[in-house]
């Protein structure tokens, strides 16, 4: 297997550090808009890795790189703006494709907090026929959430439940960063996108619908000492992926943002600082067209570089409620990463490491033929057991709590 | 009297609309960085007004304009960044100078929330000798707050009290803006500057010292139906001006920001969005160096243009506590502007109109010789009675409440 990894940020760099320990692939080209980032990622690794420069928005350039390096698969580790050009470049090149976030949504023009507009992944699923016809696979949403959370959902449906009333992904942690009032542990660009878009809910009778941001607050008790965290609905891929393959009465995603973070995001929104569309700002060199969200991101520390100052754990998981043998059952399937462990073992902070390990496991399953498929598929379209077993083999166990 | 008005924003434009009704001056040149703003201000007025383009930071250009138009006085209606170049240009030209905010402060490098660093106006007062030697007057802080609030303080000291324990400027209102979640009624640039800098307090025994932003919250009951508003300490010129001329045990300034506005300002600060120093942001035209505070200002509606959607009143005033004839006494001297009135009468919203009327009154007192002086002086250096009487003549009465 020859891999083109696009994006050498926090997650991309962690992908390389995890992959270098595994023999399943022959070559990995690490490409970034900033060549020095790609070179820095590759420098300490084995000879299978090479660095390249690429603009992820430039489909022709990505196609050129796939062809030049004879890559079988493109792994997209950029932000969601670049999903479509990378996805299309892979199809044109006859390569498989994996990402960790799906093509972007656009709210309903009149009823943004009731009805869906363009949903997450709609643009990708619309191309499923073309991928199937080409006999190629686009495995979408294959990080930790979406990704491992979807594998957990499929595992619950296959092995733990007869009937499922609700599947609710619940994400929380107790990470703190020394020396910062406010230092998100994940890309602020993506965090704003998922938290401020109208959150999506799926119900068997209503289909998909949206609500106001931060709706349905609940306190969820996270395992391994993290404890209770306030979680609210946010827009997330699992709500779109799970119902396509799994029979469940309701699907939700709640993010343990905590009160303070929610208040900050609300303020960013009320001031228009979450906007992507550029505004004109006077600068010393004359007026510039600046995306407010890009400025917010530029002001915050790079989350990938905060690992040394971070303490605590992050938990991703899937809570499932239903019945087994006529009895009610409720479980939480989860994966916890302790920042101290991920920093010591991989030099990567917990949240980016947790995101990065899952696509590497998936690539290994594809490389070894244990997973196969064509078309545009989510992680729940595949057998969950091989994935969950291989994740353990990567030194990163998952757990289950009966509630 | 020939006047150069620099700045044709909300306050500058209101200055021209107020001044056009008064005969005391011969000519007013209205200059702005954006010539079209100056032209728009001047268009509906009488022949005494002309428009010009000027960069307020360009001292030589301002000097050229003062000389060309043979101006006796420069009225600065720009933001505090431009105080020093305009102040120096006026001195060089041999003109008098008025502003509504003083030269900027810089926090103490080690103990920003205890000790003062460079205080508001320090740079201007350092030049007082040069102004006195030239026989010219720089009347600084001559808007509503500072400005009218300082006149009130002097009036209280002269006519209402024998001894003054505390002088506390208190600013509040009940203005709302239809159709906006968040639309400050005054320049956000200046609001951030005064609210996020360490607030200043004066005590006779300690001198000037600073505290944490938003310190000493208190509920102050504003007159004319506005009612109680939560007020907090902010950095303001009165605290620096009043003790130079008036004997008072303590001087404070509290701003009725309200909880929600305070929370938003705190968030802007925690995210670094209040910073003036530019950061590098990627744009479609390559990296740009952008001041975060300028971006925040660019996102918000121009407060001067919100008058049509605004409702309510704004109140500026000075609360004084002390003794008279051996008896304790407490008064609040205040000036309330109803937005409906200022829009109908002048087409200017309440807050900018209230700021603008005071320097026009002061200019008239100077033109007619009722006020005179040289050096760098605050409003409390002059007889308060003529000012307070003339303000009434402008159709804008002030009030006094015994508490």
UniProtKB/TrEMBL annotation, chains A, B:
Gene3D superfamilies: Dihydrodipicolinate Reductase, domain 2 (3.30.360.10), NAD(P)-binding Rossmann-like Domain (3.40.50.720)
InterPro entries membership: NAD(P)-bd_dom_sf, Sacchrp_dh-like_C, Sacchrp_dh_NADP-bd
Residue stretches making up the Saccharopine dehydrogenase NADP binding domain: 3-138
MF-aspect GO terms: ATP binding
Protein name: ATP-binding protein
Boundaries of every Saccharopine dehydrogenase-like C-terminal domain copy: 143-395
Keyword Nucleotide-binding: yes
Key words, A-Z: ATP-binding, Nucleotide-binding
Organism from which the protein derives: Nonomuraea glycinis
């Amino acid at each position: 297997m020859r891999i083109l990894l696009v994006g050498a940020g926090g997650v991309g760099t962690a992908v390389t550090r995890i992959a270098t320990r595994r023999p399943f692939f022959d070559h990995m080209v690490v490409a970034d808009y900033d060549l020095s980032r790609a070179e820095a990622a590759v420098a300490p690794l084995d000879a299978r890795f090479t660095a390249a420069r690429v603009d992820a928005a430039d489909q022709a350039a990505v196609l050129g790189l796939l062809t030049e390096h004879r890559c079988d698969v493109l792994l997209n580790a950029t932000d969601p703006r670049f999903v479509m050009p990378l996805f299309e470049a892979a199809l044109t090149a006859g390569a498989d494709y994996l990402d960790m976030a799906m093509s972007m949504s656009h709210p309903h023009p009149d009823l943004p907090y009731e009805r869906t507009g363009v949903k997450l992944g709609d643009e990708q699923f619309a191309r499923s026929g073309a991928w199937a016809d080409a006999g190629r696979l686009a495995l979408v949403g294959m990080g930790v959430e979406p990704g491992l959370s979807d594998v957990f959902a499929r595992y619950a449906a296959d092995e733990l439940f007869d009937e499922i009333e609700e599947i609710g992904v619940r994400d929380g942690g107790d990470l703190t960063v020394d020396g910062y009032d406010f230092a998100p542990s994940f890309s602020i660009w993506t965090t704003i996108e998922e938290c401020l878009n109208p959150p999506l809910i799926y119900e068997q009778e209503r289909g998909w619908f949206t609500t106001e941001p931060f709706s349905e607050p609940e306190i969820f008790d996270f395992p391994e000492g993290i404890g209770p965290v306030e979680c609210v609905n946010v827009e997330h891929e699992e709500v779109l992926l799970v119902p396509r393959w799994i029979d469940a009465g309701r699907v939700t995603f709640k993010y343990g943002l905590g009160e303070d973070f929610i208040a900050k995001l609300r303020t960013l929104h009320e001031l228009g600082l979450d906007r992507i569309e550029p505004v004109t700002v006077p600068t010393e060199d004359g007026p510039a067209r600046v995306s407010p969200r890009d400025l917010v991101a530029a002001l915050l520390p790079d989350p990938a570089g905060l690992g040394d100052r971070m303490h605590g754990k992050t938990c991703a998981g899937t809570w499932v409620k239903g019945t087994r043998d006529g009895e009610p059952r409720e479980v939480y399937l989860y994966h916890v990463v302790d920042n101290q462990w991920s920093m010591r073992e991989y030099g990567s902070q917990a949240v980016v490491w947790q995101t990065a390990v899952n696509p590497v496991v998936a690539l290994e399953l594809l490389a070894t033929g244990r997973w196969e498929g064509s078309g545009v598929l989510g992680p729940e379209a595949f057998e969950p057991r091989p994935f969950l077993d291989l994740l353990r083999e990567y030194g990163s166990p998952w757990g289950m709590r009966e509630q």
